[in-house]
Amino acid sequence: NPTIETKLDGIDLQRPFPGLQSFQEKNKSQFGGRDIEIKELFEMVENSPLSIVFGKSGIGKTSLLLAGLVPELQQNFYLPIYVRIDYSNAKSPVLQLKEIIFDRLKKQDNSVTEFGSRTLWEYFHDVKLLDGLVTPVLILDQFEETFTLGKTRAAEVAELITELSDLAENRVPVVVQEDYQRRTEMISSKYGEQHYRIVLSLREDYLAQLEGVKKQMPSIKNNRYRVVQMTVLQAMDAAI
To answer: What gap in Å lies between CA 129 and CA 127, rounded to an integer?
Structure first.
């Protein structure tokens, strides 16, 4: 039948591979061969506040995140927030991050308030998506660009690392401590809980640079997932 649509979600069904491009969330039905990795990565994210995903350039990390992990999270009461910082943007990395987070959360829950002057730590502790039924997962892809393209924006990168570190380690930011001290109030015990998850994805040849932030973010060494080349059986599964 010549009227049958031959394209699905932007991929030609006769040539269902995007070549050098990554599979996207909408291409999950064409993304195969990584079922074990999806399950393992999901379990790591579910059980760990911070997860590090790494692998060689072009191995398929972004495809695994977008077409594998993201749909799995959505089916299990998580809200993935996929971010790739644009270091050519005039806005600071932290501001970009906050805008993307707010827009994504607002679409899910219209009652969500804007960031204002709050840090990432404050915001993720204050906001309870759908009364806490949904857990946000912040996914920062291509994180090696923090150490490459971000070199010319050292102060802004330092701000980003500080905010992410406080979030990952559940460490009360200095500005929040000072504010409580001025008001002579005790910090609420509710801040001990972490109703959020963080995923950092980067090329494995930049793991050494990531180690440079372990004093601020010591948990980067606890939960790491290496994406490796498919086996023959996995490749066959993907092809079929």
So the answer is: 6
